[in-house]
Design a protein that fits this description.
heterodimer; A: 232 residues; alpha/beta; Rossmann fold; six-stranded mixed sheet; four-stranded antiparallel sheet; 9 helices; 36% helix; B: 121 residues; mainly alpha; two-stranded antiparallel sheet; elongated
Chain lengths: 232, 121
């Protein structure tokens, strides 16, 4: 199977602090991969390197066979863990902004997703609740026909109804030609949508594998394995 | 559906479908939901549903028709056997639990006939 992402001996240090320590990881095409770990485990640092927002200190990262750069940015659709839209915008402004910015933006898909999320074009970003904001961000990100979707904490802080809509949108968007990398610490809510999971602790991979195989081997749900690893 | 058992999810989905087939909620020849529909409904990865369907096919409880979907077997004997197997495993668990509580076979039969007697009335 083709590797959408190849990470070799990846290390990132901030001055003296090691945020990522010698990470090796392959992500296959068509897979939904969960990166699991508490705050400060290195999830966001890893994602920022994949999206070209940070540079690694050591090691190599290839996405669709290319080093991180202009090409990879054109095929990676990234949902940051914080708001990235101007508050003076309307939903329509955000839509025009994305349409203008990304060649792979699919207008029809966006309109469908907007409908599904029960959002309107004339809504103002400033007036959106946290859940609505998250849904809009996700609608924009999933409307790109990207090869790799990188979603950083897509359901953090949203109510259960919005959470279900977000999970539905992610499942609907699944296709065999692209991969998804999703970070979360809300393991119980998301574990059923992952093919593979990676446990990140203090910048190192402490466990990885197919979610179903891990459930079978350990006789536990993924969130129970998570607690075992991270509760000391 | 809440997946609470500590079993792989594809096995829990297989068990769900098996009990629906055994209970006659899904009949022989019925079409199962498409992988996509079902994954949306249960909120699980489509590959997991695919796996559950594949394993059910290996057990010959469902069959796939290219481009049409996945269907429940029309073999009445297969479904009968499934019902029997599921009933046997429930009874086996029950007897094990009763043994743990220290009940003797005769007492177990007594309790069951008493209970069933009440249900019939």
């Amino acid at each position: 199977m083709k590797h959408m992402v190849e990470i070799r001996n990846l290390t990132k240090t901030y001055f003296t602090k090691r945020a990522l320590n010698n990470i090796n990881l392959n992500i296959e095409e068509g897979k939904v991969v969960g990166i699991l770990g508490p705050n400060g485990s290195g999830k966001t640092t890893l994602i920022k390197i994949l999206t070209g927002l940070l540079r690694q200190s050591k090691g190599e990262v290839l996405i669709d066979g290319h080093k991180v750069g202009t090409y990879t940015k054109s095929i990676v659709s990234y949902l940051p863990d914080r708001n990235f839209l101007y508050t003076w915008m309307t939903v329509k402004d955000a839509f025009m902004f994305y349409k203008d910015f990304y060649r792979d933006f699919d207008e029809g898909k966006f309109k469908e997703l907007l409908d599904f999320m029960q959002l309107e074009m004339d809504m103002k970003i400033r007036t959106l609740s946290k859940g609505m904001h998250e849904k809009l961000n996700l609608a924009l990100v999933l409307s790109r026909n990207a090869k790799l979707y990188v979603l950083d904490e897509p359901i953090a802080g949203v109510d259960p109804v919005a959470r279900d809509q977000i999970l539905d949108a992610i499942i609907n968007n699944y296709n065999e030609k692209s991969s998804m990398l999703i970070t979360t610490h809300l393991v119980r809510d998301m574990e059923n949508i992952f093919d593979d999971v990676v446990f990140l602790k203090n910048g190192e991979i402490v466990l990885e594998g197919n979610a179903e195989v891990l459930r079978e081997e350990k006789g536990k749900r993924i969130d129970e394995i998570y607690k075992e690893i991270f509760v000391v | 559906m809440d997946f609470n058992d500590n079993l792989p999810i594809y096995i829990q989905i297989m068990n769900l479908l098996k009990s629906q087939i055994a209970a006659g909620e899904i009949s022989g020849g019925d079409k199962l939901p498409s992988v996509r529909e079902f994954s949306k409904e249960l909120k699980v990865n489509p590959n997991t549903i695919q796996r559950a369907y594949q394993e059910l096919e290996r057990e010959e409880l469902v069959f796939t028709q290219r481009g049409m979907g996945t269907f429940v077997t029309e073999d009445v004997e297969m479904i009968k056997r499934l019902r029997k197997d599921m009933a046997t495993s429930i009874v086996k668990n029950f007897i094990e639990e009763m043994n743990k509580l220290g009940f003797k076979p005769k007492e177990i039969i007594e309790i069951i006939s008493e209970r069933i007697g009440e249900e019939i009335e």
